[in-house]
Amino acid sequence: MHPLSILISNDDGVFAEGIRTLASAASSRGHKVTVVCPDQERSATGHGLTLQSPIRAERADELFAKDVKAWGCNGTPADCIKLALYELLDKKPDLVLSGINHGPNLGTDIFCSGTVAAALEGTLEGIPAMAVSIASFQWRDFEFAGELAMDIAESTLKKKWPESLLLNLNIPPCSAPMMGPLRWTRLSIRHYEEQFSRRSDPRGNTYYWLAGEAVKDLQAAGDGPIEWPSDVAQIDSVAPSLTPIQPDLFWRGKISDLPMIKVKNQEVR
């Protein structure tokens, strides 16, 4: 494959081991790699953008492998991709990668994910994009995930990446020989219990800590082939999960299930 121009970001920040491993995996294959990512951790920021304060970017090449150009940005992951595309890069990249995230991005949690948002920003700009995550906050061996991500990206680009396709790759926290085969998966519907922990500070003032635990709901969303497992079920089986996502959030249910809405003298059916 001819060398690609690859833009990489994340939400764990410029010092995260995951993004350095992913950049190295891409660079070692001869691709031109540019990293533009937050200057500190900005997990769970979703697709937030910075509108009320200036965005700054500083070079961070020394943190990455030779020939990787890097910037640390004080904005969100989505800010980083926008800034890269419109200010820092000379031309649009062939591929946007986001990760390797320190923790899972499964099911409907993707709506909160800065990792997925960075990749989605690439998709919205018409660029092939993939989010990559290790399904554990403790696992720190990212090498296999980087190689698998590059294998998937290069293979998909060779076969013409479908328009508006965002790939969401999650990899179980174990060594490669222990993993099952990679499979296409559907998004799970994830629910949380006890989402806030109520506490008191030394002065007796109440504060809240977001501390809910996910209920491992293996129910998959309605779209997609029924034989595909959910992404949570795939990770629970100790195998990598690859979920195709698109920006279109339009209602997929029956039109007859939508309520009839009465507004003054008008009925909306």
Report what the structure shows.
This protein is α/β, with parallel strands linked by helices and 269 residues long. 21% of the residues lie in helices and 26% in strands. The protein contains five helices and 15 strands. The strands form four sheets. It has a nine-stranded mixed β-sheet, sandwiched between helices. Strand 6, helix 4 and strand 7 form a beta-alpha-beta unit. Helix 1 crosses helix 4. The protein is globular and about 65 Å long.
List key phrases describing it.
alpha/beta, 15 strands, 5 helices, 9-stranded mixed beta sheet, 269 residues, globular
Topology:
Layout lengths: L4 E5 L7 H11 L4 E7 L18 E3 L9 E5 L3 H12 L6 E8 L11 H11 L4 E6 L8 H16 L7 E6 L11 E2 L6 E3 L2 E5 L5 E5 L2 E3 L15 H6 L4 E5 L15 E3 L2 E3 L1
Parallel strand pairs: 1-2, 1-5, 2-4, 5-6, 6-7, 8-13
Antiparallel strand pairs: 3-4, 7-13, 9-12, 10-11, 14-15
Offer a quick outline of the entry.
This protein has helices at 17-27, 77-88, 114-124, 143-158, 231-236; strands at residues 5-9, 32-38, 57-59, 69-73, 95-102, 129-134, 166-171, 183-184, 191-193, 196-200, 206-210, 213-215, 241-245, 261-263, 266-268. With 269 residues, the chain is an alpha/beta fold.
